[in-house]
Design a protein that fits this description.
The chain is of the alpha/beta class. The protein contains 13 helices and 17 strands.
């Protein structure tokens, strides 16, 4: 008999009912050091008092009105994003998947409005993850995500990750856009790199195609800048944001230049829940905290400390780990054993991590994790690795 909860997940037998900062507390009272943060969602940890206050205050006022009316909290969030990024305009969504769908629509609407509706091809990268809607899985193109869901939305082409020659060969005057994560998350914490980012910029200039960055996982201070692409100096035309922007509350956004978003007139897109007062009140508070220079400086300092300790961990367990990869507090341990074994061993040591492709263990702690918690995390990972070695 099928479960009441559609069985599309392989869940760990742990249920949490409370959280405090970097700690998730199970129903039996066991405290787990959370290096997953809800897969980079809980950017400020569990039950952050500033976010609780923002949510509680708004919850006592008004939750939802729909986009038939002005929503001051939505406008404030959009203004904060425009003030702190390349963007001229913002559409607020509920999730990263919704943001991906709008990004695809925006690309196609741009070329249709430009008088070239046949220019629909979007070049993406193998190993990508842009969500689980039909458009998003067509963009990623992997058999794992697309098998059984055909026919897929046409107009997508994938090239090998980091392959400059393949990218040059794929992009031409008929390319509508290039869609890419500056750092792949699900794909294994793989940074695209400055040289490839500059190539994207050159191809945009040569062909007129749009650049679409997916910063759902790498954004909102995760790498020590508000968004990962800022390290390279290359800016997109359209960007998808979610996860950390709500600090745990469902929230996403599409940021765009005036040029890219220009054709999106009244009636061209909409959302019932997107941009509701409750979500946007929390998003505004997250932005006020995470976008501050001093906060980002601390993320970079902690990232350096964490990486240094992780390098020592790799050196102590050469049969378990290969290397450390990533940027800021978006880190991965490239493994010589199945990452799932380390995740399971971590449960025994009361630490939460997230597996990824390319034999990588993801470490995505809250951005306000303390130095002592970083030291404790590495100690628990050390013990987990010892368990794997002994198995």
């Amino acid at each position: 008999m099928i479960d009441a909860v559609l069985p599309t997940y392989s869940r760990a037998p742990i249920a949490f009912n409370r959280g405090e900062g970097a700690w998730a507390i199970a129903q039996d009272g066991t405290r787990y050091l959370d290096l997953g943060a809800g897969i980079a969602v809980n950017a400020l940890g569990h039950a952050n008092p500033d976010l609780v206050a923002a949510l509680t205050d708004q919850a006592g006022r008004i939750w939802h009105v729909s986009n038939l009316y002005e929503i001051p909290q939505q406008r404030r969030l959009a203004e904060l994003l425009v003030e702190n990024t390349f963007a001229d305009t913002v559409f607020v969504t509920n999730s990263g998947t919704e943001a991906a769908e709008l990004a695809i629509k925006m690309v196609r609407k741009y070329w249709a409005d430009a008088g070239d509706p046949g220019r629909i091809e979007i070049v993406a990268f193998e190993g990508a993850f842009h969500g689980r809607s039909t458009g998003a899985i067509a963009a990623a193109g992997s058999e794992k995500m697309t098998r059984g869901y055909g026919p897929l939305m046409p107009g997508f082409r994938q090239v090998p990750w980091g392959d400059a020659d393949a990218l040059r060969a794929a992009v031409g005057p008929r390319t509508a856009a290039i869609m890419v994560e500056p750092i792949q998350g699900e794909g294994g914490i793989r940074p695209l790199g400055d040289e490839m980012m500059r190539l994207l910029d050159s191809l945009r200039e040569e062909t007129g195609c749009l650049l679409v960055f997916d910063e759902v996982q790498s954004g909102m201070g995760r790498t020590g800048r508000l968004f990962a692409h800022e390290w390279t100096g290359v800016t997109p035309d359209i960007m998808m944001v979610a996860k950390g922007i709500g600090g745990g509350f469902p929230l996403g956004a599409v940021l765009a230049t005036e040029k890219a978003a220009g054709p999106m007139a009244v009636g061209s897109h909409g959302s019932t829940y997107g941009g509701n007062p409750l979500a946007c009140a929390v998003g505004c508070k997250v932005m006020e905290i995470v976008a501050h220079h001093d906060f980002l400086a601390e993320v970079n300092r902690k990232a350096g400390l964490f990486r240094q300790k992780l390098e020592g961990l790799v050196a102590r367990h050469p049969d378990v780990f290969d290397s450390v990869r990533g940027q800021g507090l978006m880190l991965g341990l490239k493994c010589r054993v199945p990452p799932a074994d380390l995740v399971k061993a971590g449960y025994a040591e009361h630490i939460l991590t997230v597996p990824a492709a390319d034999d990588t263990l993801r470490l995505l702690p809250p951005l306000n994790i303390t130095d002592d918690e970083i030291a404790e995390a590495v100690a628990r990972l050390d013990r987990a690795a010892t368990r794997v070695e002994a198995a």
